[in-house]
Write a structure and sequence with these properties.
The complex is a heterodimer of chains A (about 425) and B (about 350). By secondary structure, chain A is of the alpha+beta class. Chain A contains 12 helices and 20 strands. By secondary structure, chain B is an alpha+beta fold. Chain B folds into 2 domains: about 40 residues, no CATH class; about 260 residues, Phosphatase 2c, domain 1, CATH 3.60.40. The chains are: A alpha+beta (about 425), B alpha+beta (about 350). The complex binds zinc ion (2 copies). The site of one zinc ion (ZN) has 8 residues of chain B, from loops.
């Protein structure tokens, strides 16, 4: 890594535990600041692959394929000069749109114009096999030395022409090779599939209600990729002997459980992938179970570092300590940390929505009502109005504070998918005014 | 060159600085400062020779949990337990220097964790020429990692106080400079995650010359003159202490309990940052000066009792310090104890009046 990107981490926790208590929770906020990043770090080299769904359903209505082409053109225009790029048309197979052969070309006025012409000629026909598209993208990226490798995936339908196992196998191959933001358009995309892609490839997933939103969304995703100034950042967590790391979750801007993604650096240290960073701020919830100590004793429950990886070079960008102190002062030990409570609620909210919708699809109205009711209650408590509004599309809210709801008889498929795909989006706790 | 900055505290005030002034990180290599020692101010060019002083800080040692080697004040890299900054028990002595010209007699200090789990008291002794100095800091037990504040303060205070004497400052001015350096060092031990109980400590220094005894303090650690007309030289920074000394009620404390011994001044992130109180006395004859934390003066609050106890122990300063420590332990030892003994005048062989 060149330059000195400025990362700052903060820990929010109640380090005081009552006698015998083992669990230590902390929220670690990591912020990469923009001014410093841009002033001192040269732009990273980047490669961008755009995967556009050209299955037959993209013509129903015609505005979908029309807006998708327009959006792809906007994304192409947003690429910096010199950024390697390619456009893939996805159906039951994947095929190169631009360039014609299986490679990537640097963006310049001529290649941008040629690419937009090729995109304009696209016709929609055939089925959907997302794994094949990702496989081709992975192949293209493999020959690129770029520091930031980013893909955009647009689909309007269910992944019908391959099995979930086939998709999983491709995702496993792609993991760690590039990041991918996925978007669904129309009424038939499946939230679970897009979330799985986003999760594995450290990107975002969302649905667009109106194809007319596509150009702006493509521009935002491309700009985001162009704005990354640190390519490969990991959260490094040290825990003491005898401790168990219960979980490591990203909890803002979206819930992402990283626990199973750790790579052991040593017996005490694991590295968790966080992908590329621009000027942004993310929150992580770390929960450790430690050996309880005598009252008055202090223990380092975790040491959390943000490390930049550049080939063999590892740079510690910032570091914070998560502590545990045992006390018999109940005033101290019963103090609930508002951040920990808030994100525990946000994670429960995401899970309640996903489980509720799943039960609803399976015809289990009782579980669905209970879970979605709890979700309405949590969204209401935390002031998460976006999620509350989405939930109101799938349930009739009788009383939000108690979570009393009735399942709606008629729900547009896309409403359920939107609610699902956005279930992981969180809000930050409002800072207390002194 | 402004390329170098601390990832946590930003660019240094002076772009030429090699270390972050807050955490001591090496700005060229990015290496964090060792967790044990807060960065001391660089020695001034006017004080080339290292000044002789000792502190009660513990060295590297075995982790109480797993036996791994851990620096004092650091966290065990294996089991996560923190090793205290202070020695559980320490005895410090600067022996007499029988040189030509003005010779300084021996001074000594002892400290013990007593019945507390760790020692948050810190003590340092030192001298410049024939002037002797002792500083005691008592970590505030309700604050986080109080031992880091007390040790940082005692060492930065000693370093600055001796430096000021070497620069020609008088004892009162040197006492103020020592307390200011101690104050910023204690402040530097705070961390963003400490919340409303950052590390904090008391501070008391005594400077003994051939003519005078000068004490400076913040908090309720004390200095006693135990020669002719013995007396406590400090006034506790508590409401009860101020009122007992016939001082006015400090602003904002009009409604507080007049018997309150709670500290109204201390060193640390949340301290007032004001100068210490400084008092200078000219003793009529030889005798000992005792500087101590409340682990001792809780059991011997009256100067007359302290003087009687000390007289029975003399003459060697170390013997007196050990004896006073033993007295406090035998009386209950409810709190950490730190006690330093300095003969007046400094070239006296012992402390017997
Ligand atoms: Zn620093
Ligand atoms: Zn250990």
């Amino acid at each position: 890594m060149t330059g000195q990107p400025q990362f700052v981490a903060d820990v929010d926790q109640n380090e005081y535990l009552p006698a015998g208590r083992r669990t230590v929770d902390a929220i670690v906020t990591v912020t990469a600041s923009g001014g410093e990043l841009r002033a001192s770090a040269p732009a990273l080299t980047a490669a961008e692959v755009i995967m556009i769904d050209t299955s037959g359903s993209m013509t129903m209505p015609q505005t979908k394929i029309h807006e998708a082409k327009k959006a792809t053109a906007v994304a192409i225009d947003t690429l910096r000069d010199g950024v390697a790029f390619a456009v893939i048309a996805g159906s039951a197979n994947a095929r190169m749109v631009y360039p014609a052969d299986t490679r990537m070309v640097p963006a310049d006025p001529r290649t941008r114009a040629e690419a937009k012409e090729a995109v304009a000629r696209l016709r929609a026909e055939g089925g959907t096999a997302i794994g094949r598209w990702l496989h081709l993208a992975n192949y293209l990226f493999a020959y690129q030395p770029a520091e930031v490798k980013h893909a955009i995936l647009l689909t309007d339908g269910q992944n019908q022409h391959e099995t979930p196992q086939e998709l999983q196998a491709v995702l496993d191959q792609c993991e760690g090779k590039f990041t991918c933001d996925s978007r669904g358009v129309g009424a038939d995309w499946v939230a679970d599939e897009l979330r799985k892609v986003a999760s594995t490839l450290l990107g975002t997933a969302d649905g667009l209600e109106d194809p007319a939103e596509l150009p702006a969304a493509f521009r935002a995703m491309t700009e985001g990729a162009m704005g990354k100034s640190v390519a490969d950042v990991k959260l490094r967590v040290w825990t003491p002997a005898g401790a168990t790391l219960r979980f490591v979750k990203q909890v803002f801007p979206q819930v992402e459980d990283l626990t199973g993604r750790g790579v052991d650096v040593s017996a005490r240290i694991g590295d968790y992938p966080t992908g590329a960073w621009g000027a942004e701020s993310r929150d992580y919830h770390i929960s450790v179970e430690v050996e309880p100590q005598a009252v008055g004793e202090e223990l380092l429950a975790a040491r959390v570092s943000v490390v930049g990886v550049d080939g063999p070079t590892i740079q510690v960008l910032t570091e914070r300590l998560v502590l545990a102190r045992w006390t018999d002062d109940t005033e101290l030990s019963t103090r609930i940390n508002p951040q920990v409570a808030h994100y525990t609620g946000q994670a429960e909210l995401a899970a309640a929505i996903q489980e509720g919708l799943k039960a609803r699809d399976a015809g289990d109205a009782e579980t669905a009502t209970a879970k979605l009711g709890r979700a309405v209650q949590l969204a209401n408590e935390s002031g998460h109005t976006d999620t509350a509004k989405l939930l109101a599309r799938v349930v009739d809210v009788v009383d939000a504070p108690t979570g009393t709801v009735r399942l709606k008889k008629q729900v547009a498929g896309v409403d359920a998918e939107l609610t699902n795909v956005r279930s992981v989006k969180t809000i930050r706790v409002k800072k207390k005014q002194d | 060159m402004t390329d170098f900055f601390c990832p946590e505290h930003g660019p240094p005030a002076d772009p030429e600085d090699r270390f972050c002034e807050v955490c001591g990180r090496n700005l060229r290599t990015g290496e964090a400062a060792a967790q044990t020692a807060p960065p001391l101010p660089a020695p001034r060019p006017s004080t080339p020779a290292p000044l002789p002083w000792l502190s009660s800080r513990a060295g590297d040692g075995a982790c109480a949990g797993c036996g791994a080697r851990v620096p004092a004040g650091g966290y065990c890299d294996d089991c996560g337990r923190r090793r205290a900054m202070g020695s559980e028990h320490a005895e410090l002595e600067l022996p007499a220097e029988p040189t030509g010209g003005p010779a300084a007699g021996a001074i000594a200090a002892v400290t013990d964790k007593a019945r507390r789990p760790r020692n948050e008291d810190a003590v340092a002794i030192g001298r410049h020429g024939d002037t002797t100095v002792a500083i005691v800091c008592d970590g505030v037990s309700t604050s986080t990692r109080a031992d880091t504040a007390s040790h940082a303060a005692v060492e930065a205070g000693m370093h600055a106080l001796l430096g000021a004497l070497a620069d020609g400052a008088d004892a009162a001015e040197a006492s103020r400079r020592g307390a200011r350096a101690a104050s910023s060092a204690a402040r530097g031990t705070g961390r963003p995650e400490d919340g409303d109980s950052p590390p904090s400590c008391t501070y008391v220094s005594a400077v003994v010359t051939g003519e005078e005894v000068t004490v400076g303090w913040v908090g309720d650690s004390r200095a006693y003159w135990l020669g002719p007309q013995e007396r406590c030289l400090t006034v506790d920074d508590s409401l009860a202490g101020r009122l007992a000394a016939g001082m006015a009620v400090p602003p904002g404390l009009a409604d507080a309990d007049p018997r309150s011994r709670a500290l109204i001044r201390w060193l640390g992130v949340d301290a007032d940052g004001e100068d210490p109180q400084v008092v200078t006395v000219r003793p009529a004859g030889p005798g000992p000066v005792v500087v101590c934390s409340d682990g001792l003066h809780y059991y011997l609050p009256e100067a007359a009792d302290m003087a009687k106890a000390a007289a029975a122990l003399g003459p060697a300063p170390l013997t007196v310090a050990q004896g006073l420590l033993r007295y406090a332990l035998d009386a209950g030892g409810h709190d950490n104890i730190a006690v330093a003994v300095l003969p007046f005048p400094p070239n006296e062989i012992g402390v017997q009046p």
